[in-house]
Amino acid sequence: MSNLIWQVEQRQPAAIVSLTGPSDAAVREGLHDVLWECLASMPTVLLLEVSGLETGDCSALGWVGELSAEAAKWPAVPVYVCGHAARRCCLPGYGSLGEARAVWDEAEQEERHSLSLRPVPQAPADAREFVAKVCQSWGIKRPVRLAQILISELVSNAVVHARSGLDVTVRRFGEGIELSVRDDGLAKLPAHLPPDPRGFGLQLVEAMSDAWGSAPTGSGKVVWTRLMA
C-alpha cells in the first residue's frame, strides 16, 4: 500500500498542494480527484510542493505533464512543481515553494461572478438573467444574446442529467468571456453527444462556441464554453 500523503495548504488565490512519500501510486490513490477539486475553483496557479516526495525515477512524475496539459485547456491554469525534482526531472517549476510564491502570491485572478442554482425548471431562466447582468456590468454587448442561449443549454443539460446543485460562473477570458456550469453528476460527458429531445442541447453549444469542453472536479464535472468578443 502506498504511503503517499497529500495536504491542500490553500486553494486561493494560488492553490498549493504538498506531497510526501512515494510517488509511484500518486494518481491511482486519489490524488487526481484532490487536484481537480483545487483546479475547479479556478486559482491563479496550482503549485505542487514535492520536496518531501520520493522520486527515484523521474518517470514516476509523468502524470504531472498530463495534468498540466489538461489544466491548460480548462481552467487555463498553469501547474508547477516546487522542489529539487523540478530541475532534476526537467519539469516546469521552481526550486522551492518560497521561490514560486514570490512570483504568484501577488498574481491577480480573472474577474468572475458565480451563482448557485437548484436543479429546477426555473434554473435556465435564472442563469440567462444572471449572465445578462454580469455582461452589462462589464460593458460587454456583442456576445450577450449568444451567451444567454449557451448558458441556458448548459444549465438545462445539468438539470436534466446531473440532478444536483449547480454553480454557474461567468469569467473574463482574454477579450471574451467564459461560461461554466459545475455539477455533482457524472465526471465525464459521453464520448458522443446523444440527440437531445428538445432539439438543441450540447450539440448547439459545440456548434456555436469558440471553444468548449468539460473537466472533472473531484465530485462531478464542469462544462464550459468560451465566446470571443
Describe the fold and architecture.
This protein has 229 residues and is an alpha/beta fold. It folds into two domains: 100 residues, STAS domain (Transcription Regulator spoIIAA), CATH 3.30.750.24; 116 residues, Histidine kinase-like ATPase, C-terminal domain (Heat Shock Protein 90). Helix content is 34%, strand content 28%. It contains seven helices and ten strands. Helix 5 runs antiparallel to helix 6 and helix 6 packs antiparallel against helix 7. The model has no long low-confidence stretch (mean pLDDT 89).
In a nutshell, what does this entry contain?
This protein is an alpha/beta fold. It has helices at residues 27-39, 62-73, 84-88, 97-104, 123-138, 144-161, 202-208, and strands spanning 5-10, 15-22, 46-54, 79-82, 93-94, 112-117, 166-173, 176-183, 211-216, 221-227.
